[in-house]
Design a protein that fits this description.
Layout lengths: L21 H5 L6 H55 L1 H56 L6 H16 L8 E6 L13 E3 L10 H9 L5 E9 L2 E14 L2 E10 L1 H51 L14 H57 L6 H32 L7 E4 H19 L3 E6 L4 E4 L1 H18 L5 E7 L3 E8 L6 H4 L23 H11 L3 E7 L3 E9 L26 E7 L34
Parallel strand pairs: 7-9
Antiparallel strand pairs: 1-2, 1-5, 3-4, 4-5, 6-8, 7-13, 9-10, 10-12, 11-12
Helix pairs in contact: 3-4, 3-6, 6-7, 7-8, 8-12, 9-10, 10-12
Amino acid sequence: MVSATKQVPEPSGPEAHRAPDPAAAKGPEHTDALPAELATLPFRARIWRRRGVIVGLRVGRLVQMGVTRFIPAVRFAGRSLRRRWRRSLQFRTVLTTLLLAVTSFGAVGAYLSNQIANNLFQERLTQAESETRYYVKQVQETFDGAQVTDQSSVITLVYDTLNAVEGRGSVIQRRYVFEAVPEQTKPRNRWVESRASDQLTVSVIPSGLRTAVQETGKDQYWASTIIPVGTEDRPGIAVGNKVTFNGTVYELYLIYDVNTAQQTLDEIQGVLLAGGAVLVLMIGAIAWYVTRNVVSPVSHAALVSEKLAAGQLQERMVVKGEDEVARLGASFNHMAASLQEQITKLAMLSQMQQRFVSDVSHELRTPLTTVRMAAEVLYDARHDFDPINKRSAELLYNQVERFQSLLADLLEISRFDAGVAMLDAEPEDILQVIAHVIDGAAPVAAEYGSEIILRAPAEGIVAEMDARRIDRILRNLILNAVEHGEGRPVTVTVAANQSAVGVAVRDQGIGMTPAEAARVFDRFWRADPARARTTGGSGLGLSIAMEDTKLHNGWLQAWGNKGRGANFRLTIPLRQGEEIDRSPVQLEPEDIILPDVPHAKNVLVLGPGPTGASGSTAGGRGQGAGRPPAGTAATPKESS
């Protein structure tokens, strides 16, 4: 239906470009209301802009909150997976098996899917080419035998022929596009410009296929294409040929729908995907079951080992069967039984030795007291003896004193071994304890020609400690430093932080080698066994000092260098029950620093003197140190 339209003449002159007046169009009554509406527009724009900013801020805040919660969750999951990967052999094995299975099935599935798709397409293509040759031959024969005289007859003949090729029925078997070859030189009196199946145009034919068909003679070409069918696009194959009718050359393309082949391929891929997923799950379950049977005995052995290490020597593995795992369990149980027997024997032997030392020490106290009283009588009357007897009385007195000191140390060691040593901690000023120790060591320092220098804060340092045991520790350290300091100064450094107080005793003497340092806190050990017994004590001083430090939950550490002296550091918590995170004094003495002590003073307590008296000193010394948590050896490189 064609509708007639009438052209409206446009105005000319100056009025042609004049804009219409809205106020005039609305009438005189709107001329006053319009300026008021325009005046409220900026206010409304500001309100909407502010609302937009508020909404944007709220959305941004929600997004930021979600990101801040999502990222930690992802990090936590990643850390959990990494920890699980490192600590679980079963998890690592099952996950690796699953990854390898997925990769293998993916590769095999991709190969099978590609092969099936190629075979289906090739089969459909062969069928399409064969059918196209047959129907193109029929079309050409029909065109050659046609007797038509007018254009309407030509159109009817072409339409009927192409409909027969299309094979209409319940399902369209093939579609066509019939197009005249462009730029033909021969005159065309009776011709059909173009014809195509429903919803198709020549645009569905790939340009490369059209070019190949136009430039060749009777050859046949094909190409993949997309054809619209209803509301969806389907894959298809376009096969092109040339036909002639009444001297005009036409391009005839038969288009075959391969959607059924695509659906078949999708179903096959779905089956492959579902089957692969089921197989992967089955492989994962099998891998979990197999690795569980292998890893469970190993995990059980690790658990039993931990219990044995904790002292539960009666623990054993459960042995089932006669395979390799069962033999491993039997061997493990045999080893555990042997270890239990040996440890029990050693424990009994240790108890017997401790009891022997304790009993002998107690039994020796009475005769030793009698011998000491007799030695004191002889020592006091030595001026009336001849020189030989006088010297014998002096030696007897000194050795009895040494014997009594050794006996006291043995009794103290026996208390530690029996576990009856108790800590009597009270708040005390550690500077007063140090001053008392230095006063007691003054005669020994004067005898060796050393001076003791105290570096400490001006105010006192109160700590919860057993003053008697701290006094004994510091006396051992200071007398040990004086004895091995070779007449050089001995520096005592004191400092405290928020959790601990530290005391470092530094000498400039002979120092220690690494081999000597490894055994510095061993019982009855001396750095040089060939040295005269007039120098050094029994070898129990530093061992007792270490035990006293453990009672305080503190650290006793040492640093040394051969020829450059040694430095012993004692660190105890300010309040009992608290942990020590770091020591407030340096372990390496090259650059001694007092951290967080604004007012420090250097006090010269004692200079060299002419006389002195002997005192109980620590035995060995060296580069050993105490591990901070347990009071055993620490590394010489540690600093505060």
